[in-house]
Specification:
This protein is α/β, with parallel strands linked by helices and about 400 residues long. The chain is built from 12 helices and 15 strands.
Length: about 400
Amino acid sequence: MNVEQELDLNVIREQITDTDQQLLELFAKRRALTLNVAKSKAHQVRPVRDQQREQELLIRLINNGKKLGLDAHYVTSVFQTIIEDSVLNQQAFLQTLTNPNIQMPMVSVAFLGNKGSYSYLASHRYFSRRAENIIESGCQSFAEIMQLVEAGHVDYGMLPIENTSSGSINEVYDLLQHTNLAIVGEITQPIEHCLLTAVNTRLENIQTIYAHGQPFTQCSNFLDKQHDMRIEYCDSTADAMAKVFELQDETVAVIGSEEGGHLYQLHALEKSIANQDENHSRFILVARKPIDVAEQIPAKTTFILATGQKPGALVECLLILKDKGINMCKLESRPIQGRPWEEMFYIDVEANYKTMAMQEAIAELTELTKFIKVLGCYPIEHISPTSVPSSEI
């Protein structure tokens, strides 16, 4: 490359930098406008999302983009992300109005592991649009997280509850049986497992892999193909990454996220090693007091119940939900300690606890069961992308 070509390249890069800055300013302007939309809905019982309007918006943008030479998939991907951000910001704003006693310029949150763990990443992602500063408390166990919240040492606890690859995290479900904490939020965190190392090396040099138990389960197909590798279990992904950074050894690696690995100066030797391409973990946020959910926001209610050893008892409970038009999105059973062959059922439903249908359902379930307890009502955080007819793409 000669000097003239290099100068031209520098000019082009400066133009790209200026354009990126203009885009950021426009994104900020658009976000401010959507918050004004939320303010207009504050005193109206109108859903935050209008998916028909979102679809019409996407179709119009796709057609306008085609005139500018932009690919339909590119336009769709960009604006689906923008729409998701808009919805989540509107929900966060409406929640602050519904719960004026909960102000969050600064929050303290407990999570499993230290910096770089998936729970750490989920905590920062959840509070990125809700608080200016986060006081972090890394813990070595789920029980410790709940104890810190119960004792008032931290405001919130972030707990993984299920994974699309390895299933439910039973220890957390068991702990929820014996706590007075309330579930006040949820977030779904993409889990992108990589094999991380502290030094430049090759896969065939790796002799020891450090990781938390969950990543080992979720990457079993990749690990089964490796030979003569020793597995070392750690209390958290963050502990495993810290260990590998400390060793600075070409024969050791850790399973974790590339994003978390950057905090420990680790780089990805192998990417996308999970059994499933789409691997996500759902986290719940617990606090000492429950919250109210704004009527404009889609909500979940989580409760537990014990039916006793009566044939068809669970079916009778589920029929109550069906009769009330309440959609059940999760059913999990766990044994009740000290009572052999009896189970506690954990149920998630897509309903606001304050609605008449939900209140009636809980009242009828109370009459029908030996034990029932509402663990919390909270906004649905997962935003399904607005679909566009294939004919438009």
